[in-house]
Specification:
The protein is α/β, with parallel strands linked by helices and 291 residues long. It has one domain: 3-Layer(aba) Sandwich (Undecaprenyl pyrophosphate synthetase). It contains nine helices and nine strands. Strands 6-7-5-4-8-9 form a six-stranded parallel beta sheet, sandwiched between helices. A three-stranded antiparallel beta sheet has the order 1-2-3. Helix 3 crosses helix 4.
Length: 291
């Protein structure tokens, strides 16, 4: 991606041909979101953004509404985030929609969540196709209700030939369970004599994760002010930058998403090393050579 002097962003390889997206197509002129957008450097955007969408229940409670209304209101934030990420050319967006721990919630809330999921997929499939987005669920999908799996399979099939951003929805997902499943696979292969101890390395493990074939998240966003990763992508988040937003998920609009991206660009990513002289992350020096 690169800036265009005419006020556009070039997204390379997102669709069949190279596409130049005008800033006006991302955020309206004169808005706070546009002001943040104009500060971003397209060449330094994250490749993969993971999001823990938190705060739906508290949003509803603060308005004296049933908790499920918070989940319903959160659909708008999902739409804005996905569409903005797609227009910016972010390769992968992974949304934490339903954890294995969420089964502990009241039965009517779980049923409503699953109903909203099916409703969302049916309603937004045209949007996915319009923006050339691929859809992929991760987690223990086989344990979900058959009606839910049917809609998920339909969306995966319908978007299989799309070449734009990949939207991963984590459903019935647990980071610990994912790693447990990897260990079981290793044990089974070792027992069968097809896996030697020296073969078990990071590459082997990553090939057996639900996110295999995708880059690790560069940025994790969690909304609602909570500051924990809640059993999400435990292996994949090893070197991710983490951005905690105080905003409840239904209120997490385009401006808030762009703020998270801008904060990411202000981070110095070392991956365990030391900052390099001349790095894009090195603070600029003044005329006297001072930072």
């Amino acid at each position: 991606m690169e800036h265009d002097p005419g006020g556009s962003i070039a997204m390379v390889g997102c669709l069949e041909d190279d596409v130049k997206v005008s800033l006006d197509e991302i955020a309206e002129p004169g808005t706070d979101a546009r002001a943040v957008l104009e500060q971003l450097e397209p060449s330094r955007l994250p490749v993969h953004v993971a999001i823990i969408m938190d705060g739906n229940g508290r949003w509803a409670t603060a308005r004296n509404l049933p908790r499920v209304e918070g989940h319903r209101a959160g659909i708008s934030a999902v739409r804005q985030t996905i569409e903005t990420a797609a227009r910016l050319g972010i390769d992968v967006v992974t949304l934490y929609a339903f954890s294995t721990e969420n089964w502990k919630r009241p039965r009517h809330e779980v049923l409503t969540l699953m109903g909203l999921l099916k409703e969302y997929i049916k309603r937004e499939l045209k949007t996915f196709l319009k923006h050339d987005l691929r859809f992929r669920p991760i987690g223990r999908i086989d344990l979900l209700d058959r009606s839910v799996r049917r809609e998920l399979d339909r969306a995966v099939e319908a978007t299989s030939s799309c070449r734009g951003s990949l939207i991963q929805i984590a459903l019935n997902y647990s980071g610990r369970q994912e790693l447990t499943d990897v260990m079981r696979s290793a044990a089974r292969e070792a027992a069968a004599g097809t896996l030697r101890p020296d073969d078990l390395d990071e590459v082997w493990i990553e090939d057996h994760l639900t996110t295999r074939g995708q880059p690790d998240p560069d940025l994790l966003i969690r909304t609602s002010g909570e500051q924990r990763i809640s059993n999400f992508l435990l292996w994949q988040l090893a070197y991710s930058e983490i951005y905690f937003s105080p905003v409840l998920w239904p209120d997490f609009d385009q401006e808030e998403f762009l703020k998270a991206l801008l904060a990411f660009q202000c981070r110095e990513r070392r991956f365990g090393g030391l900052p390099q002289s001349g790095s894009v992350f090195t603070p600029p020096k003044d005329e006297h050579g001072k930072t």
